[in-house]
Specification:
Elements (H helix, E strand, L loop, with lengths): L1 H19 L11 H12 L7 H10 L5 H7 L10 H5 L9 H10 L3 H65 L1
Helix pairs in contact: 3-6
Amino acid sequence: MKANTIESAEAMLDALEDVEGEGSMGGEVLSETNLATFDAAVASLPPYCDDSVELDWIRAHPAMSRKSRYAALGVHEPIAVTEQDILSPPHGRAPSQTAAQALQHWVNTPDKFFDRVLTEQRKRMEDARKSKKTEECSDDLAKLQQMIDDVVRDRAVIAKKEAQEHASTIITIGK
């Protein structure tokens, strides 16, 4: 039974290598050629782009799930991002050099990356909720101000009428 499990794990590793490209998993022997190719791929990109674009690209990259998939197979070596990961992943090439470099960092600590992403999402949701409350309060304040203005205007009209009536009463009595 154990031999079948080992053979299955080896078959899965072979399949992952075939799908993701040569040397895209941890344990790859990095040669100077591989490093130069990776460096050239990174150098071909713009230096930086909007942070949200970079984060979205990293979050969507299939390499971000390699650590857990390989750990399930008993492979615990660091993951090396390849030229293919940078220039031809399924969701499009890296948007910038910083995105490619960040992917190399985060691919080996995906739990921390996704914790940070979730923290940012929660913060944006809270900010949006606060903003909505502020808008609602502003709307309420505007309605309240309109009501006060109406009361003041009505009171001024009433006061003017009362003053006119009082003045006409004085004039009538004086005649």
